[in-house]
Task: inverse folding
């Protein structure tokens, strides 16, 4: 399918439409789907679910996994890429002894509510820690917490909070700011980048999907987790947290080459973080698993963080789909993580087609 037509056809305006597009695309090619239904409804009473599609032999030695919606509202990007792969006939072009696993809307609550976090206000990509161990501390976040989510999201209270944040940042680098705000925190349940007090429904669902498809028994598992909000507009940066010097890291480099960036080397738009899905998948699947985050740029980091601050403010007051202030907050969140333009959508599809193809082409070298 031509990329301009796909960019108009494959993306959706909301979660419910995205879910319908994904399931319909599977149905067209006779692909069965399975649904893991979230216990809560969406803002319009719609069912929320993580849907999966397995394409290829049940006993495939190699599995490529594409995940959308880890961060809720960011699911527009990955969901569009999944539908594009299906409608482009990808299921007919799998390498020998290889299966594709599509996981659509890992965090359906966040997607439906145009929020980045789960129903527990947890950042799913900070939730994969061992909660039996002492939880990490983030003293930098502790200093900023009262100002990141002020009592007033508009007006004098917001201006005072913004001034306090500007003063804190004045003599610090951008990396210092990002580490304090976004590396993950476990002490402020109504704050940004909260990692939770236990495994979320979304994490437990991912674990069930891993076990359901016996991924720990495969020869290789290559995971592409689609995200948005950091980096150059429309470009998908492959970010690897695979251990330095490991075979997994070497395999990532074979698959995606010099485009791979690594927070451990300091050459990524991302920073070193806690509780990442990459760590959880590696723990559950084993050494056969490589996990890469594809981060598609949107707007400035300040605009993205402002959207998250608004979302946290709304969460504290209780989500209300009909409240006009919260409607403005949701619109800002949608824009920050899904620039719904022809240019951005075409850039995303060009890059995701390339990245998925590279993953499948590299299966034989696993």
Result:
């Amino acid at each position: 399918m031509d990329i301009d037509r796909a960019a108009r056809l494959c993306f959706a305006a909301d979660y419910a439409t995205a879910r319908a597009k994904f399931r319909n695309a599977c149905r067209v090619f006779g692909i069965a789907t399975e649904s893991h239904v979230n216990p809560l409804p969406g803002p319009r009473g719609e069912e929320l679910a993580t849907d999966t599609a397995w394409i290829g032999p049940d006993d495939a030695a190699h599995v490529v996994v594409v995940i959308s919606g880890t961060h809720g509202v960011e699911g527009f990007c990955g969901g569009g890429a999944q539908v594009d792969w299906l409608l482009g006939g990808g299921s007919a072009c799998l390498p020998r002894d290889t299966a594709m696993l599509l996981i659509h809307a890992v965090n359906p609550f966040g997607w439906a509510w145009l929020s980045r976090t789960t129903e527990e206000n947890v950042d799913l990509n900070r939730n994969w820690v061992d909660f039996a161990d002492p939880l990490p501390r983030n003293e930098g976040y502790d200093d900023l917490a009262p100002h990141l989510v002020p009592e007033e999201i508009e007006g004098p209270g917001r201006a005072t909070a913004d001034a306090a944040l500007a003063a804190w940042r004045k003599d610090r680098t951008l990396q210092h700011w990002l580490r304090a705000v976004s590396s993950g925190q476990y002490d402020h349940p109504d704050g940004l980048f909260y990692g939770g007090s236990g495994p979320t429904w979304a994490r437990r669902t991912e674990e069930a999907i891993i076990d359901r498809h016996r991924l720990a028994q495969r020869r290789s598992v290559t995971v592409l987790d689609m995200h948005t909000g950091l980096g150059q507009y429309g470009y998908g940066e492959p970010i690897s947290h695979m251990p330095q010097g490991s075979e997994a890291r070497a395999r990532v480099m074979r698959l995606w080459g010099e485009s791979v960036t690594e927070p451990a080397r300091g050459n990524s738009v991302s920073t070193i973080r806690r509780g990442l899905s990459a760590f959880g998948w590696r723990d559950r699947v084993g050494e056969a698993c490589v996990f890469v985050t594809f981060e598609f740029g949107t707007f400035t980091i300040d605009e993205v963080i402002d959207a998250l601050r608004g979302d946290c403010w709304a969460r504290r007051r209780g989500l209300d789909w009909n409240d006009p202030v919260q409607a403005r907050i949701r619109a800002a969140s949608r824009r920050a993580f899904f620039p719904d333009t022809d240019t951005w959508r075409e850039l995303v599809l060009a890059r995701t087609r390339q990245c998925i193809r590279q993953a499948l082409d590299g299966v034989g070298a696993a």
